[in-house]
Specification:
Blueprint (H helix, E strand, L loop, with lengths): L1 H24 L13 H13 L3 H4 L3 H27 L6 H24 L13 H11 L1 H15 L5 H8 L1
Helix pairs in contact: 1-4, 1-7, 4-5, 5-6, 5-7
């Protein structure tokens, strides 16, 4: 059991650690002026958006910009803290912030995935997914950002290591 918990901690560490450069180099381009980013990163974003038919990154709707704003303001400062906690392991103080983070991200991802699956992208400035196969490919790219926070939430709620209530139940 301890091995499984430690494996989850390593997954969470990797998720938060890699999320820092992804947010800074890619996601924030939806908010910040183009001159902030070198042309190589702008080209990377354009390649991604074209290859995977993700118009939200090149022409983000206002609601999507609000999610990126929350990512920049609330989540980005949390990423190194969470990466440290899960790298070190056995940091029970991360429980409450991880619950807040994971519920926030899971909630936002549900609306993003619904938008990808059910929105009519024919009016988008940039081409969005037009077939179910393209929609599912884009969903597959966003899915880890739902699945890992849900795993994190469940671990924080039900793991004996992070939930003192569960630990007391097990001792009885």
């Amino acid at each position: 059991m301890a091995f499984c918990v430690r494996l989850l901690e390593w997954i969470f560490f990797f998720y938060f650690f890699t999320h820092i450069p992804i947010t800074l180099a890619i996601d924030l381009q939806a908010l910040l002026p183009q001159w902030v980013y070198p042309s190589s990163l702008q080209d990377l974003l354009k390649w991604y958006a074209t290859q995977f038919k993700d118009p939200m990154m090149l022409d983000p709707p206002a609601w999507f910009k609000s999610y990126i704003f929350c990512e920049a303001l609330l989540q980005l400062p949390f990423f190194p803290v969470a990466a440290y906690a899960f790298y070190k392991g056995n940091c029970q103080w991360i429980r409450t912030p991880a619950i807040v983070y994971s519920t926030h991200v899971a909630t936002t991802l549900v609306s993003i995935l619904a938008h990808i699956l059910f929105n009519d992208f024919s009016t988008s400035v940039y081409p969005g997914p037009s077939t179910m196969s393209q929609r599912l490919s884009l969903v597959a790219l966003y899915a880890p950002y739902l699945l890992i926070p849900v795993m994190l939430l469940l671990a924080m709620l039900f793991s004996v290591k992070y939930n003192p209530v569960e630990e007391k139940k097990k001792k009885k």
